[in-house]
């Protein structure tokens, strides 16, 4: 039987005919309905006194959410940023007597500036007092200019064949977007770089991973010659607490050049501007994956790709991490 829309009047007429003694088969033949539909309508009528389901309390015409409800949404997401729209929909229905569809709720949240973003996970082990002390230090006008020009941040990143793979594509509705690609990670390469407000001032790539000796060599041979004694520009080296970064010989070598060394608080990649640069660098690798993977010299290709990082980008990352104070010119 072909699916068709059946009016409530016809459903009610069918039930009345059944109640007046008509045979089920005769009703189905006369009205062109199925016995299964008749039983379903009868069950609804017996339970609810009507032949159709009542509209859901959580559905209704899309409408603009009032300011009080929007503020409630802001409060919900400030406490629990990972709240699903379905959960928010129930919250609004129960606590604010507001019925709204999921599409309308999404649209209103977008208009209110509550946009969907990738969650940034924060380690529970992070020490907020140490982070506050660090921020107070780098923003102290007695020690630093507020322009960010004194700082150089260093860290490592890595790539394999999966790094250059694109994750999204387009295809007609109902069809997958498919490509043929490698399913093994391939050779691992590591990049270590130093970032200032001028961009990358030094970079080195190797096959495999860096150890303490190779990192020490990079700092002394590639980074230190680009730096100055404190309090000049590029005179303060910022590093995280990776094991290979803690080296007494390295501290002594920096001290002999008048270079200040500051370690980041534990679990605080957001305070290291170079982390954002690595995200941009890896996005560049994805955009140019074929060229990178087929290059005759992978090391040279990786070093060339560092040119995607500009001074303008670097200034933005240093500002975002708190090294640049806005009112300083």
From TrEMBL:
<dbReference type="InterPro" id="IPR036397">
    <property type="entry name" value="RNaseH_sf"/>
</dbReference>
<dbReference type="GO" id="GO:0003676">
    <property type="term" value="F:nucleic acid binding"/>
</dbReference>
<feature type="domain" description="Tc1-like transposase DDE">
    <location>
        <begin position="151"/>
        <end position="287"/>
    </location>
</feature>
<dbReference type="InterPro" id="IPR047655">
    <property type="entry name" value="Transpos_IS630-like"/>
</dbReference>
<protein>
    <recommendedName>
        <fullName>Tc1-like transposase DDE domain-containing protein</fullName>
    </recommendedName>
</protein>
<dbReference type="Pfam" id="PF13358">
    <property type="entry name" value="DDE_3"/>
</dbReference>
<dbReference type="InterPro" id="IPR009057">
    <property type="entry name" value="Homeodomain-like_sf"/>
</dbReference>
<dbReference type="InterPro" id="IPR012337">
    <property type="entry name" value="RNaseH-like_sf"/>
</dbReference>
<dbReference type="InterPro" id="IPR038717">
    <property type="entry name" value="Tc1-like_DDE_dom"/>
</dbReference>
